[in-house]
Design a protein that fits this description.
Layout (H helix, E strand, L loop, with lengths): L1 E5 L4 H17 L4 E7 L4 H7 L4 E4 L12 H22 L3 E4 L5 H7 L5 E5 L6 H6 L5 E4 L13 E3 L15 H8 L6 E6 L6 H9 L1 H6 L3 E6 L5 H4 L10 E4 L5 H7 L2 E4 L3 H10 L3 E3 L9 H10 L5 E2 L5 H13 L2 H12 L6 H15 L3
Helix pairs in contact: 1-15, 3-4, 6-10, 7-13
């Protein structure tokens, strides 16, 4: 069997795509895969590192602020459609799979005659997936209630596929401390703002410089993101001995293993991973997302006493202080860990793989 998979732009699209491919491969080891991504985006690096081939399309999202730029974007989209059709013709996939992002539009549109599965991570559907829905055979979702975006008869509630390998932490803490150069005698706050970084979280660290000096028994493992590394690596807070700044954490299992408290944005994939990690979490929802869906994601945890939420507007004043306070409250930390672990879903990728394989099996010759 051959599968064409497209999704990218951020880790929230890329990692589910890789998880689905790995789940299919586990069930059908003889399968072949080809990923299609957007040139210049992080999937062009991350997918080969995961062991899969990828082809790039010169495609970008539409610019809502500068409409004149969309003429060139439209030209690139038409050009990408042609290239996607050639890729489909040459690779001859048995099914096409999309997880959202710029490239999945033309890639899956070119394969509309094939069994098609799209996977939507959030409670508010992305633009590309909404456009592809009319051609999809099945739509795998993580939340109930997405009938307002998609045809109800196509929906399958599977949960979000995540990178299981990054949530296997047993016995890795010492190796993680050595890998990042951390002090074994100090508790660790891990701060991750997604694959590209989050400005508010980074600015919250800078604002807490005096607090971090005062609490030098606490250390910060700070993933600032590719977009922000140059700026924040030149700040005085990054020079503190208990602050460990990195652009991106490749070994995320080590990052999670080292952490005693985790600060994160409220993306659906991040939250799905954090439920499996089972450590105290502070969620700072991004305000720059459709329908404020990250706040809804976060409240799904806080309503079950499974996480702490700090609003984006308050992060500079209270975020690091809240994390340090949580570190010092063993009862609170244990309760948060226990409750978030109870929300973990472990088999989403397997469920999606089963949906895809069944479609291919039942395809008329």
């Amino acid at each position: 069997m051959r599968f064409l998979i497209s999704g990218g732009g951020t880790g929230g699209h890329i990692f589910p795509a890789i998880a689905i491919a790995n789940a299919i491969k586990a069930k059908r080891p003889d399968s072949e895969f080809l990923f299609v991504g957007a040139e210049g985006k992080m999937e062009m690096e991350r997918v080969p590192k995961a062991g899969f081939p990828i082809k790039g399309l010169d495609v970008r999202g539409f610019d809502r602020k500068n409409l004149f730029k969309n003429f060139s974007i439209l030209f690139k989209l038409l050009k990408s459609m042609g290239k996607a059709k050639r890729i489909i013709k040459d690779f001859r996939p048995d099914a096409v799979i999309g997880t959202g992002g710029y490239a999945s539009g033309p890639a899956l549109r070119a394969g509309k005659h094939l069994p098609m599965v799209i996977q939507e991570q959030n409670s508010y559907a992305g633009v590309t997936n909404k456009l592809l829905a009319k051609w999809a055979s099945k739509i795998c979702v993580a939340y109930d209630g997405l009938e307002k975006f998609f045809p109800g008869e196509k929906l399958v509630v599977t949960g979000n596929p995540i990178r299981r390998e990054v949530t296997i932490l047993d016995g890795k803490r010492d190796a993680a401390y050595a890998h990042f150069g951390l002090d074994k005698g100090k508790k660790t706050i891990l701060i991750v703002g997604g694959s590209l970084g989050a400005r508010t979280l980074n600015e919250a660290v800078v604002a807490a410089e005096e607090l971090l000096k005062e609490h030098n028994d606490v250390q910060l493992l700070w993933q600032c993101g590719k977009l922000y590394y140059e700026k924040f690596s030149n700040t005085s807070v990054s020079e503190l001995p208990n602050v460990h700044l990195t652009q991106f954490i490749d070994k995320m299992d080590y990052g999670y293993a080292a952490a005693d408290v985790i600060i994160s944005r409220g993306g659906a994939i991040a939250i799905s991973e954090l439920c499996l990690v089972g450590k105290p979490v502070i969620i700072v929802p991004s305000p720059n997302v459709a329908e404020d869906h990250q706040t809804k994601n976060a409240k799904a945890l806080t309503s079950k006493d499974a996480a702490i939420m700090v609003e984006d507007a308050n992060a500079k004043k209270t975020l690091i202080q809240t994390a340090i306070k949580t570190l010092g409250d063993n009862s609170l930390s244990q309760r948060l860990s226990q409750n978030i672990s109870g929300l973990a879903k472990t088999d989403a990728a397997d469920k999606i793989a089963d949906v895809i394989l069944e479609l291919v099996k039942n395809r008329k010759p």
